[in-house]
Design brief:
Elements (H helix, E strand, L loop, with lengths): L1 H13 L4 H13 L1 H6 L2 H4 L2 H5 L4 E10 L5 E12 L5 E7 L5 H17 L6 E6 L8 H15 L8 E5 L5 H15 L22 H15 L9 E4 L4 H12 L3 E2 L1 E3 L3 E4 L6 H10 L5 H6 L4 E4 L17 E3 L9 H9 L4 E3 L8 H10 L2 E3 L1 H4 L2 H15 L5 H25 L6 H20 L3
Parallel strand pairs: 3-4, 3-5, 6-7, 6-11, 11-12, 12-13
Antiparallel strand pairs: 1-2, 2-4, 8-9, 9-10
């Protein structure tokens, strides 16, 4: 379709060297072709041309002092992509890989993910190339305070509400919130993922992982299957992976893998969740410590990974949950998973599968839940935290979890029914992209050219 090709060519010309953003945009634009053909008003209002451009891009310097008294300088980002449905909402990522292209891809995905939840939130994302690994608590605090000293100008409970992402957990959110409160003299719900002591929500920590499992359960239920008794592989060992594993156990499944930047654990008897939480949440150590404490588990270091593949996806499983980072699962991994009998993929990370891997899953017509749908539980629960802050109330874990489960069912049903509407009932990529885009696009048309 020449129209879509022209928009993509425009992106490459005006946003050079942003490969992750191109990948995210190309997937969405390709999915929108049948919508554009059926409803020309979206072309008339040039919604695609508008939606691929962020409403606001903020890039700033973050200067701070390390424990040796040396000045360090990092880049800070906040991309406020689209506010048609509500205040900008999306996490902050602190990781050396962060650059403008990564933040733009994450923010672009966030627009449609947030729209799919049905909740009144727009899309945004932010972060820094700062690496919290190996830094002392004091260094992390000083960096977060320097970061917020600029970011505070651009956020607010009805403007932009950041949350956590890779490298930004409860510790970082605490330091960021403390600085915001000090500068503004306001105690308000400007960040989500806060401590339960001062405005956080029960269930928020678990929400992304739990949501990915709920989404998988909905996909399987539509085919008369369940997770009970099934072996599952999970990548990553951060917040998303840990609580994916926890919910898999709740559903009677057997999660057998976790991974980090150094290697993969394969525990045939099932991952020891208590040990994993101790190592990753309390001690912040490598998975090599898991192997030391549980020698019956197999540890596969990075140096022993299969050529052009990841060890975690070579383990036979019924369902796989990519929960680490973008493009962690390539076409070779996808073919290996299918050859080993995998029937379900539910993405806990943002865009963890390469385009070639996605095409492989779609061609096989297995249950495939793309990240913008399957990992929407985290931002959904963030909005529930915003609602509790606004009402000065706190909900029980059971109430939050029930709402989360209902939201994830709604996300699945919306993506599924939209895919069926456009003649591809098993293609939830198409269904999620069209459903999310249509909700945002209709709101933009109603609000006029702004």
């Amino acid at each position: 379709m020449p129209y879509v090709k022209n928009v993509f060519a425009y992106l490459k010309r005006t946003s050079p060297a942003q490969s992750e953003f191109y990948q995210a945009a190309e997937e969405v634009l390709h999915s929108l072709r049948p919508l554009m053909e059926r409803y020309p008003r979206y072309r008339q209002y040039k919604i695609i041309e508008q939606i691929v451009e962020p409403e606001r891009q903020i890039l700033f310097r973050v200067a701070w002092m390390d424990d040796r008294g040396e000045v360090q300088v990092n880049k800070g980002y906040r991309i406020e992509f689209n506010s048609a449905l509500g205040p900008y909402k999306g996490g902050l990522r602190f990781h050396p890989s962060v650059n403008a292209g990564v933040i733009k891809f994450l923010g672009f995905e966030q627009i449609f993910k947030n729209a799919l939840t049905g909740l009144p939130i727009g899309g945004g994302k932010g972060g820094s190339d700062f690496d919290p690994k190996g830094r002392s608590d004091a260094e992390v605090m000083r960096f977060c305070q320097a970061f917020m000293a600029e970011l505070y100008r651009h956020i607010g409970p009805n403007t932009d509400v950041p949350a956590g992402d890779i490298g930004v957990g409860a510790r970082e959110i605490g330091y960021l919130f403390g600085k915001y409160k000090k500068i503004t003299n306001r105690f308000e719900g400007v960040l989500t993922g806060k401590s339960l002591l001062w405005g956080g929500s029960l269930g928020r920590k678990e929400a992304t992982g739990y949501g990915a499992v709920y989404f998988a359960e909905n996909m399987l239920r539509a085919r008369g299957q369940t997770l009970e008794g099934k072996r599952c592989t999970v990548s990553g060992s951060g917040n998303v992976a840990i609580y994916t594993i926890e919910k898999l156990y709740h559903k009677g499944a057997i999660p057998v893998t976790v991974s980090d930047s150094r290697g993969t654990i394969y525990d045939e008897e099932g991952i020891d969740l208590v040990l994993l939480k101790e190592i990753k949440e309390k001690r912040r150590e490598s998975l090599t410590e898991y192997h030391k404490a549980r020698p019956s588990a197999k540890y596969i270091p990075l140096s022993e990974y299969p050529e052009d593949g990841a060890a975690v996806w070579s383990i036979p499983c019924f369902a796989a949950f990519p929960s680490a980072t973008q493009n962690e699962l390539n076409q070779k991994d996808a073919k290996t998973l299918l050859a080993n009998g995998c029937e379900c993929i539910s993405e806990g990370a943002n865009m963890p599968s390469t385009p070639e891997a996605v095409d492989t899953f779609l061609a096989a017509k297995i249950c495939y839940g793309p990240g913008k749908a399957a990992n929407a539980g985290g931002v959904a629960c963030s909005q529930l935290e915003m609602a509790q802050n606004a009402s000065m109330r706190s909900w029980s874990l059971e109430e939050v979890d029930n709402k989360l489960e209902q939201i994830m069912q709604s996300v699945h049903d919306t993506a599924s029914s939209t895919a069926e509407e456009f003649g591809e009932p098993t293609n939830l990529v198409l269904g999620a992209n069209i459903a999310g885009f249509r909700r945002v696009a209709d709101a933009m048309i109603e609000q006029g050219l702004v």
